[in-house]
Amino acid sequence: MSRADFKIMFVHINDRMRTFIPLNISLLSGALKKAGFSTALFDTSFYIEQPRVGEEQKKVEAGIYQAVDYASIGVVMKEGSIEADLMEAIGREQPGLIAFSVFTQAWEDNERLAQRAKEVFPSIPIVFGGIHINIESGQVLSRPFIDYICVGEGEQAVVDLADALHLGESVQGIPNIGWKDGDTQRINPPRPLAHMDTLPFPDWDLFSPVHQYGPFHGRMWRLGLVEYTRTCPYSCAYCGNDIFKDRYRESGHKIRYRFKTPRVWIDELKRMKEQYGTEMFYVSDGTFLAQNTRNFTELA
Question: Is 82 exposed, middle or buried (0-12, 13-18, 19+ CB in 10 A)?
Answer without folding.
Answer: buried
